[in-house]
Specification:
Elements lengths: L2 E4 L3 H7 L4 H18 L1 H11 L8 E2 L1 H9 L3 H21 L4 E6 L2 E9 L2 E5 L8 H14 L3 E5 L5 H10 L3 E3 L3 H10 L9 E3 L4 H10 L4 E2 L7 E5 L9 H12 L6 E6 L2 H15 L5 H11 L1 E4 L3 H11 L3 E4 L13 E4 L5 H6 L25 E9 L1 H17 L3 H11 L2
Parallel strand pairs: 1-12, 5-6, 5-8, 6-7, 8-9, 10-11, 10-13, 11-12, 13-14
Antiparallel strand pairs: 2-7, 3-4, 4-15
Helix pairs in contact: 2-3, 2-8, 2-9, 3-8, 4-7, 5-6, 6-7, 8-9, 10-11, 10-12, 15-16
Length: 418
């Protein structure tokens, strides 16, 4: 049953989010090294062992993706079109733009925006098929102008393959786990080396991304999914059925998922606990959701909305639901914020537009969710004429000599002292 706790439980809940990352890193290191040294041979062996690969190669032909799209139910095809339109529009809002500014007479500066050459999207293939994650990882890359967009999934369902066909993904591979991350990080004869690997995955995928960051770019190291909900100041303004439904929507993802509700009202807390039990009794995914509710979730009683916001910032949750905009100024850390009673997190998972690939386990203290900016490089430019260089020369030469870099100073003086 969902527990009702006071704020003294917050440190324990935060501690429980500590990942099994060290253990996972130990297990995946030999896999990464095998793929690095043995390439496709090791990759195929791991794909057969872990992913059930029954083909001579992990690569899927484009024709298979096109056929899968044609086989999709018309209602799903329509949903893909509507959702992708919002995701694409939001991705365009996030795209950095080229700029130029004259900082002083004769001193022009600017920035160029250039897409990455090759990116890889990891799509989990476990308990649930996730065509939505394919849209969230591929569409921003398309908006950014990435030339080669790859995707992989260990056991791709028809909906995932059909979505790949709908999006016209360049290359799709039937592989998963640490060996898939290694293949994209190092490159093999079959799998191109990616400049960045994005998308959620298991603890082993996360460990592989962490170990290979620097060898390739990654989005972030993600842990189990989570939501934190702050109930309205007045309990009468809250709907226990809606709050319970939102908690269960998160809990059904995985047994390690967590759902935290913060409220001032003992009465509302009890009503939500009762409603969670009622909904679990008829939920098809209750076997998963109940474990997440009992192990990792809670209702925490707080004294005020200000305290709720402070606790939320300590959690830095992946998903944060707040009652209205008045609380936004107090929020410093969150992956994505859902404002008001009708902004259910499920809308963000699929179709409202903002990306659902988000930092977890407190990583929202450091960055926001996956963005079009993750698929481009911002390259600075600078152009000086002689008068501008002469004006800067005393500062440049003084600083260069303070650092002991005489050739730096002379490279300026050779131009300005003639």
């Amino acid at each position: 049953m969902l527990r009702i706790l006071d704020t003294s439980a917050v440190p324990r809940l935060l501690a429980r989010r500590a990942s099994r990352m060290t253990e996972a890193e130990t297990l995946v290191r030999p896999i990464l090294e095998a793929v690095r040294t043995r390439g496709d041979k090791a990759l195929t062996e791991y794909a057969r062992t872990f992913d059930g690969l029954d083909a001579p190669t992990v690569a899927l032909p484009a024709a298979a993706l096109e056929a899968a799209y044609k086989a999709l139910d018309p209602s799903l095809r329509l949903a893909l079109k509507r959702a992708s339109a919002n995701i694409r529009a939001y991705a365009k809002l996030q795209l950095p733009t080229a700029k130029q500014a004259t900082l002083a007479p004769g001193l022009k500066t600017g920035q160029l925006i250039r897409p990455l050459d090759t990116v890889a999207a990891y799509i989990p293939g476990g308990r649930y098929p996730l065509p939505s994650t394919l849209m969230m990882t591929v569409i921003p890359a398309q908006v950014a102008g990435v030339e080669t967009i790859c995707a992989c999934s260990p056991k791709p369902a028809g909906a995932v393959l059909g979505t790949a066909g709908f999006l016209k993904v360049n290359r799709f591979f039937r592989m998963g786990g640490a060996h898939a991350i290694a293949a994209f990080a190092y490159g093999t004869k079959t799998v191109p080396r990616a400049d960045r690997i994005v998308g959620p995955g298991s603890i082993y995928v996360a460990a592989a991304k962490k170990l290979l960051a620097g060898e390739t770019g990654i989005d972030f190291v993600a842990g189990p999914t989570e939501i934190l909900i702050i109930a309205p100041e007045k309990a009468s303004a809250a709907n226990p059925r809606w709050l319970a439904a939102d908690m269960l929507a998160q809990a059904e993802h995985d047994t390690d998922a967590s759902a935290i509700l913060l409220t001032r009202s003992k009465q509302l807390a009890a009503a939500v606990v009762k409603e969670v039990e009622r909904q679990l009794a008829v939920l098809p995914t209750a076997a998963v959701a109940r474990k997440a509710i009992e192990r990792n979730s809670a209702v925490i009683l707080v004294s005020s909305l200000a305290e709720a916001a402070e606790i939320s910032n300590r959690f830095a949750p992946e998903h944060l639901s707040i009652p209205d905009r008045s609380l936004l100024p107090a929020i410093r850390h969150a992956g994505s914020v859902f404002i008001g009673p009708f902004s259910t997190e499920a809308a963000g998972d699929y179709a409202s537009g903002p990306n659902h690939v988000l930092p977890t386990s407190g990583a929202a203290r450091l960055r926001g969710g996956l963005s079009t900016a993750d698929y481009v490089k911002v390259i600075s430019t600078q152009e000086l004429n002689l008068p501008a260089l002469k004006r800067l020369a005393p500062s440049v030469t003084t600083l260069a000599r303070a650092e002991g870099l005489e050739a730096h100073a002379r490279s300026v003086e050779v131009r300005t002292n003639g």
